[in-house]
Write a structure and sequence with these properties.
288 residues; alpha/beta; 3-stranded antiparallel sheet
Length: 288
C-alpha cells in the first residue's frame, strides 16, 4: 500500500520533535517504576475500572500514558505513527518494568489490520491532541466500533476546538474549526518545553532550546459536533460529553493561572471558555 504523502510527512515531523520533547523530561522510567503516573483525573474517571481490560491506546506518542494505564492493571497496546516515539516507548517499557505492546503504524492501517486479525478491546483510549491528526473522522470512529467488545468503551480527552479560535494572547482571531479543513504548519513544535513542567511530571529539564522543526506538518480542523456525530453514526452510544474551562498540562495561551495537578486556567480578565472536552461512548451489549 502506498502511504498517504501527508501522513508520511507528518511522521517525519513527529520523528524530528520526539527527542526534543523527551529532553525536557527527567528519568521517566524511574518515575513510572516507583508508582508515578502521567495521567490526569479526567481520563481516569471516564475510563473507569480498567483492571484486566484489554486496552488500546491510539496515537500513544512516547508511551508514558500507555504505561501509566498498564500500571493501573490494563493489558495495553499502544499505537503511534512515529517510529521514534514507538522506539522510545518500547525502551521506556523495558526500563520501567511495566509491560505493554507498542506498534508503529498509521492509525487507519492499524484499525483495518486489527479488524482482520479479530482483535478486540474492552477499552480504547485517545487523548490530548488526537483529533487534529485525523483526516477521516468516520473511518476512525467505525474502526474503533469494530474493535470494541460488546459493552466496551471508547474515551477521548481532547483540547476544545473553541480554544483554537483565539490567538496566544487571548484575541478572537480564527474561525471555529470544522469540516476537516487542512491546516499546514511549519512542523510539530516543542510544546513540552513551552509547558514548563506541565507535561513533565517526572521532573522538568531545560533540554533542547530554540527548536525549529525542519519537517512541516498538516493538521485537520474538526468541531465537537462533527466528532460526536461520527461516533453516533458508528452506532456507539454517547455516555458522557464533558466540557472543561481549564486545560491539563499545556500552556496554549499567555498569562495562564497554574493550579494544583498541572491544571491551568485563563487569567481573571478572560471569561471562562471551554479549553478541553471529554467524550465517552460505548458499544451496545447486544452489538456483535
Amino acid at each position: 500500500m502506498t502511504p498517504d504523502p501527508i501522513t508520511e510527512q507528518n511522521r517525519r515531523s513527529w520523528n524530528a520533535v520526539v527527542p526534543v520533547h523527551t529532553s525536557h523530561r527527567a528519568d521517566e522510567a524511574d518515575f513510572l517504576r516507583n508508582g508515578g503516573s502521567t495521567l490526569f483525573p479526567e481520563e481516569i474517571a471516564l475510563l473507569g475500572d480498567i483492571r484486566d481490560c484489554r486496552l488500546l491506546h491510539l496515537l500513544c506518542n512516547t508511551g508514558a500514558d500507555s504505561l501509566s494505564l498498564a500500571a493501573r492493571g490494563a493489558i495495553v497496546t499502544g499505537v503511534d505513527l512515529s517510529d521514534a516515539a514507538i522506539a522510545y516507548a518500547r525502551a521506556l517499557s523495558g526500563a520501567s518494568g511495566i509491560p505493554a505492546t507498542f506498534v508503529q503504524a498509521d492509525v487507519y492501517d492499524y484499525l483495518a489490520a486489527a479488524a482482520v486479525d479479530g482483535l478486540r478491546f474492552e477499552r480504547i483510549y485517545a487523548g490530548y491532541g488526537v483529533i487534529c491528526w485525523l483526516r477521516d473522522l468516520h473511518a476512525f470512529a467505525h474502526g474503533i466500533a469494530t474493535l470494541l467488545t460488546p459493552g466496551g468503551r471508547f474515551v477521548l480527552m481532547e483540547f476544545h476546538p473553541t480554544s483554537n479560535m483565539f490567538s496566544a494572547d487571548w484575541q478572537l482571531a480564527y474561525n471555529y474549526p470544522h469540516g476537516g479543513t487542512p491546516l499546514e504548519l511549519p512542523g510539530v513544535g516543542d510544546y513540552v518545553g513551552a509547558a514548563e513542567g506541565g507535561l513533565s511530571p517526572s521532573g522538568f529539564l531545560p533540554g533542547v532550546s530554540d527548536f525549529t522543526n525542519p519537517e512541516p506538518c498538516t493538521l485537520y480542523r474538526w468541531g465537537v459536533g462533527e466528532v460526536v456525530t461520527a461516533f453516533a453514526q458508528a452506532n456507539l452510544r454517547l455516555r458522557v460529553l464533558h466540557e472543561y474551562c481549564y486545560v491539563n498540562g499545556e500552556r496554549p495561551f499567555t498569562r495562564m493561572v497554574q493550579a494544583e495537578g498541572r491544571r491551568l486556567y485563563p487569567p481573571p480578565d478572560i471569561p471562562a471558555l471551554p479549553l478541553m472536552y471529554g467524550l465517552a461512548v460505548e458499544k451496545d451489549h447486544n452489538d456483535e
